[in-house]
Amino acid sequence: MAFTFxxxxxxxxxxxxxxxxxxxxxxxKYGGEEDHNIRxxxxxxxxxxxxxxxxxxxxxxxxxxxxxxxxxxxALVIQWALLCQSFYHMKDNTIYLTKKLLxxxxxxxxxxxxxFGAVLGVASGLQLLFIAIIExxxxxxxxxxxxxxxxxxxxxxxxxxxxxxxxxxxGVSLAMKGKKKKSxxxxxxxxxxxxxxxxxxxxxxxxxxLWIYWPSFNSALTNSNTEYQRAVAxxxxxxxxxxxxxxxxSSVLSHHHGxxxxxxxxxxxxAGGVAVGSVCNMYIGAGTAxxxxxxxxxxxxxxxxxxxxxxxxxxxxDTCGVHNLHGMPGxxxxxxxxxxxxxxxxxxxxxxxxxxxxxxxxxxxxxxxxDQALNQFLSLIVTLVVSFIAGTITGxxxxxxxxxxxxxxxxYNDEVNWExx
Length: 421
Prior knowledge:
mainly alpha; two-stranded parallel ribbon; 16 helices; 1% strand
């Protein structure tokens, strides 16, 4: 076939990659042995590239894009996020590269992949990459607010990663779908916006990988061995409880004589990991971890069953249901942080108190438990406002013609972006 301008559509991304290379030459040096033994990096890497990627292969004709763009987006965002996050903490205008910085960049890429799930199949490749670049910058700014301004405890990222990514994605979806009109080929869109038997099976691969490695994700940035063990144990218990609850609730709410819904099994089973994420390193108790997982399972299944159709009717599409897996459980976790911060005492936490709640130290003017609880709640509110407003603005910008918005009959279809066998 003849060479056309379409062959150059991703060329601006190569330009951006070159800019990143130059910035790394200018600002980044190796950090020596610092943080060389950080936990969770390899496991989080598996979650990002296999877990998220395969989870989004449930659409019957969109598996190439789910896996391919997941890889493309994550590879780009990891490089960009490392710079964006580190610019807030530079020493002598230098970023000292460590395994911890790579881990934090990996975690930030999850934010973009959550947003990807909200607009899966309805955004073009160029739109996705444009959204990713903007969201990473805004997400790193919000992360700085949560971590350094509010000094909120958010070790599993339920506030700054999960809730931010979900509501940024819903804002993008609202803005992008606002211009949509039914076309003569609308039937094709409806037909492709759903799974096949085999696509649901491949999506389960992603779910199981995420489920297995979620304790590593939540515990990776803990500060002590005791804090690490609490985070792992609480996350595992919450995931297990959410899984049992999901299967039961899926059957209870079934419209088909108690049959299980694969959408619930693929997603709501993971909601416990999100809901416990921000409190997993706190003294919440094993029973409470199970209760949180059960609550998250109920909340997520109810969301898929009733809230997602409502959002669709008011013009907010959510292909993967990220509101039910990441959004509402993330808000749930943020509220729980305020509760457990307010209950925190030096007697219970001992030396771990300042590891979990940095601002509640004994030097200078230490925060009280009630002050920390207030800052936890404020960090959640600010995250929700920043993410949805920024997402909506980004969505409007992403409608620009040069980003090649998809027509109705091009949605949920790999053929638009890939050479198919």
